[in-house]
Design brief:
47% helix; five-stranded parallel beta sheet; binds adenosine-5'-diphosphate; two-stranded antiparallel sheet
């Protein structure tokens, strides 16, 4: 199993929860989004009102859930957590909405995967704080309007482009999370090491930070695997030697790319001569879902300049060819 896989160990959720910063001031990186959120929340608190609805978008593992929890903590309000895939019928959403308390934060993870019928109910509720509860069936069904107390939706999505415009428009504030700089990941790792009671050298933390695909979730996961390696094969201390051995064992290369990243680049270069090729075709070539390739692998590869998105599909950059130790064929478009 891949160390960087989105589906993690059984205890991962608990570990993640323990490692989440609780307040905005303890949240390293994403300075822009953090400052913007800080303003929105402080202003709302000052007015004694619920803030605008908040949409957080960006690749997995960058801190969307963490920020949602922080929003509730900063507002000193309870948070209700659910997700798009859990809302398959409008009734599922009606049940959640009608039980919200005043000022409560409703966190909707993967909001782009909510059922269509629920989307419409949600944006009306976000706008008017009202839902129509359908009573009865068929011709005798009637809609009973139900007033809701003001609340704040925090939506998280890896694919903000998939949200219908009317829903997207109901969010007064959208924060786009970007990959973290290695310095920020080093801060996060040092904090995590402290919380996990792992003895870690600054040099080892720097190496892990540079190989974590700009993603705190991956950084924390790698730290735990290096800790395991140090415990089983080393001195128990997370040092550079343990780090390098563990990274090798888990297939993380010098640039932090994992097996899926390299498989995508490999398919793009070797099988499709550098592209351009569509995402669905690439996904079949690496045996993954399109959505996984598009949300998990591609953003970082694009960001690091390995893949170029063109109107005709994805193309390999010269960097992709050289990273695989290949020579780009003469006459490729890019
Ligand atoms: P997302 O919801 O975007 O997938 P999460 O908020 O669940 O990401 O974050 C994944 C893990 O990374 C959590 O354990 C969280 O503590 C950690 N993390 C994310 N962002 C930060 C940050 N800025 N500082 C410290 N830890 C972070």
């Amino acid at each position: 199993s891949r160390v960087l896989d989105a589906r993690g160990e059984a205890d991962e959720q608990q570990v993640e929860a323990a490692l989440r910063p609780k307040r905005l001031a303890d949240f390293p990186g994403q300075t822009r989004v953090r400052d913007q959120l800080d303003l929105v929340l402080q202003a709302a608190k000052g007015r004694g009102a619920a803030p605008d609805h908040i949409l957080l978008s960006g690749p997995p593992g960058l801190g969307k859930t963490t920020l949602a929890m922080i929003v509730a903590a900063e507002l000193e309000r309870p948070i209700r957590v659910t997700s798009g895939p859990a809302i398959q019928h409008a009734g599922d959403l009606a049940a959640v909405l009608s039980s919200l308390d005043e000022g409560e934060v409703l966190f909707l993870d993967e909001i782009h995967r909510m059922a269509r019928a629920a989307e419409e109910m949600l944006y009306l509720a976000m706008e008017d704080f009202r839902v129509d509860v359908i009573v009865g069936k068929g011709a005798g069904a009637t809609a009973i309007p139900l007033e809701l107390p003001p609340f704040t939706v925090v939506g998280a999505t890896t694919r903000s482009g998939l949200l219908p415009a009317p829903l997207r428009d109901r969010f007064g504030f959208t924060g786009h999370l970007d990959f973290y700089a290695p310095e920020d990941l080093a801060l996060i790792l040092a904090r995590s090491a402290g919380l996990l009671k792992v003895d870690a050298d600054a040099a080892a933390i720097e190496v892990i930070a540079g190989r974590s695909r700009g993603t705190p979730r991956i950084a924390n996961r790698l730290l735990r695997r290096v800790r395991d390696w140090a415990q089983v094969h080393g001195s128990g201390r997370v040092d550079v030697a343990a780090t390098q051995a563990a990274l090798e064992l888990f297939d993380v290369d010098e640039l932090g790319l994992d097996r899926l990243d390299r498989a995508v680049l490999d398919a793009l270069c070797r099988r499709y001569a550098g592209g351009p090729v569509g995402i669905a075709t690439l996904a079949v070539a690496v045996g993954e879902e399109s959505d996984t390739v598009e949300t998990v692998a591609e953003p970082y590869l694009v960001r690091q300049g390995f893949i170029i998105r063109t109107p005709r599909g994805r193309a390999a950059s010269p960097l992709a060819w050289s990273h695989l130790g290949l020579t780009a064929p003469a006459g490729t478009g890019i």
